[in-house]
Amino acid sequence: MGYLVAERLPPTYESEVRLLVGPVSADRDTLQAAGQQAQNYAAVTTTATIIVPAARELQMSPDEVKSTIQDVTASDVTRFLSIRIHDGDRNRAALIANELAAQLIAYSREAPLQLAGRLRVMEAATPAAEGIGPSAQLIVPLAALAGLLGALGLAVVVDGLSNVVRNEQELAALAPVAVLGSINGTRPRFSKRPFVVEADPDSRAAAAYRLLATKIELSNGDKAPKSVLLLDAHGGRSSGWLAVNLAGALAESGAHVALIDHGNKRDLEKLFEFSSDSKPGGGSGGQPVRVDRVTLDRFPIGGSLVTVFRPRAPFELLELDQAGEVLKRVLADADVAILTAPPVDSSPHSLIWSSTAEATVLVAERDHTQRAHVPAALETLRHAGGNVIGIVLCRDRAF
Length: 399
Prior knowledge:
Helix content is 41%, strand content 21%. It is α/β, with parallel strands linked by helices. It has 2 domains: 10-123, EIF_2_alpha (Alpha-Beta Plaits, 2-Layer Sandwich), CATH 3.30.70.1130; 168-394, 3-Layer(aba) Sandwich (Rossmann fold). The strands form 2 sheets. It has a 9-stranded mixed β-sheet with strand order 5-13-12-6-11-7-10-9-8, with helices on both faces.
C-alpha cells in the first residue's frame, strides 16, 4: 500500500539560485557591510516587493509564487544568498528561482548603487534531473510501521519524537534564563479595541499581560528597564502581538509607551488600521520623528497612552549608534519603549536592537518553535551583547 501511495503522489523538484552580495574582494568594512546587507536581501525576497513583479513576469499569482519558496538563506560570512524553490514542474521551479533573483537584483539597483550592496548571480537555477520526493524507500517502511503499531501506538511514537516546544516545563529545561510565563496569543473576537486589557479586561489573557508587565518592571530591581525588545525565536511571528499588549498593559497603569515596530511584516498596521503612507499630521498619523538619517512615522493610538513608531525605510541597515539615538529621542516623550524586530535569524536589526535595548525578552511559540532554536537564539543574542531577562511561551499565534 505504501509503495502504491508513493507511486501515485506527484514528484517534487528543487531548483536553487545563488547570488553574491558585494564585491569578490574588498576592504574589511565593505565586506562586513555586504554580509549584513545579505541578511536584508534575504528578508526582502519573501515580501510583496519582490514576489508581485516576479509573479507578473511568470504569469502566476503572488500566492502561487510564494508557496513555491522553500527557503531563502544568507550568510554574513560568505555573503552568499540562496533561494530554493520546490515545484511539481522542474522547468517552472528553475524559472521561478531565476526570476526572483532577477527581481531582487532590480530592487537593489533602485537605491544609489554602493559596492557593499551589489548583487550578482553566481550560480543560476537549472531544471532538476530528478525529483526530491516522494520517496518510496521512506513511505513503504513507514506504512508497514503504521500497520504494526496501530493508530494509538503511532501517535505515541510521533509525540515522543516531536522536536517542538510544547509547554513551560520543556522551555525551562532548554533556556538558561527565567521563563516569564505563557500567554494566549489569540486576539479577542468581536472587538475593535487593539489591547486585550481593554477589549477583555477580566480575562485570563489580560491578567497574564499585566503579570508579564510587572515581572519585566521588577527584573532589574528597583529600576525598571526603560526599553524592552520582544523578539521571536527562529521562524516565529508572535512577538509583535505580545509587544502590543505589553504596551497596553503598561499604559493601563498610566505610563506613556512608545511602541517601535521594526518588523518586516505589516501586522501592526493591520491591527491598528493605519498606513505608513499616511501624511504626517493628517488622519491617524502624527508628525514624523527624524533622527540622523532615520525617519520614523508616528501613529498615536486614540484613547490610549501608546504611540506607534515605524521606520519609514524598515529594510535599510540601521547602525548601532543610530539605534541608540532613536531610543534616546523617543524616550524623551515617553516613559518606556517597547520594541519589535524580525526573528533572531532573519535580520541584523534584531541583534542591533537587542544590543541597544536595556532588556530583551525572547518569544517561543507552542508547537511551532523547535527546541534546538531556543538555546541557539539565546547564544546569538548573548554574542550580540543583548541583556536577555527571560523567555515567554505564546500558546497560540495571533497572525
